[in-house]
Amino acid sequence: MLILAFDTATDVATVALARDGDVLGERASRAVRVLQDVEELLEAAGLEPSEVEGIAVGTGPGSYTGLRMGLVTARTLSFSLDVPVAGVSTLDALSTGAPDAVPLIDGKRKEVFMLVAGEPRCLAAERLEVARGATYVGDGALRFRAQIEAGDGIVPPDDDGRHVPWARHHAALARDFGAAEAAEPIYLRVPDAEKALNR
């Protein structure tokens, strides 16, 4: 199955083409380049858009705007290519890329998104309990490096690939392909705009 996978939940957007577990190409850029990256990956692989059989999209948690952009893109491509979509947690993708590490996504506002007993949670960074000797990856680990290292945790260098939610892992984790609308974002908190409206 030829899968087009992408994730726009963090500051680094990733796009990959994979067929039956083999990665045909992958890019990392900004979310605004996703469609261009898709086009270039297909061209480099000598494939037509009509050959894509499924889309795997990152569902977060992460940036509200980034998540919306990714999901709208997935729905648009699903409609235009007439292919099903599978949602994949960005934290799960990070975890797959660094199976022995703790994935952390920067939640902004001095918060981190992390897995607690396998479930995504939003936590105030000051409440993060660092396990001595444990490795932490993701942009949340980079943002709170000083705090993690002060607690004897390990954060790989900034340019270490384990900090990126590579789309190849989304392709590998994708299950239950179906209607694009079924790929729901993992927000974990109410968007700022909605809070303002409710005041």
Throw out a few tags for this protein.
199 residues, alpha/beta, Nucleotidyltransferase, domain 5, 2 domains, 7 helices, disordered C terminus
Query: What is the CATH superfamily of the largest domain?
Result: ATPase, nucleotide binding domain
| Proportion of residues in helical segments | 25-40%
Shape: elongated
Residue runs with pLDDT of under 50 for 5 or more positions: 192-198
CATH architectural type of the largest domain: 2-Layer Sandwich
- Please state the average pLDDT score: 93
Number of DSSP strand runs: 9
CATH topology of the largest domain: Nucleotidyltransferase, domain 5
For the record, give the distance between the C-alpha atoms at the N and C termini, rounded to a whole number.
48 Å
Main CATH class of the largest domain: Alpha Beta
> Biggest sheet, open or closed, and with what strands and sense?
5 strands, mixed
What share of the residues does DSSP label as strand, in percent? 25-35%
Describe the model.
This protein has helices at residues 34-44, 64-81, 90-97, 139-143, 145-150, 167-173, 192-198, and strands at residues 2-7, 13-19, 22-29, 54-58, 85-88, 101-106, 111-116, 119-124, 135-137. It has 199 residues and is an alpha/beta fold. The protein has a 5-stranded mixed beta sheet with strand order 3-2-1-4-5, sandwiched between helices. Strands 8-7-6-9 form a 4-stranded mixed beta sheet. A hairpin with a 2-residue loop joins β7 and β8. The radius of gyration is 17 Å and the shape is elongated.
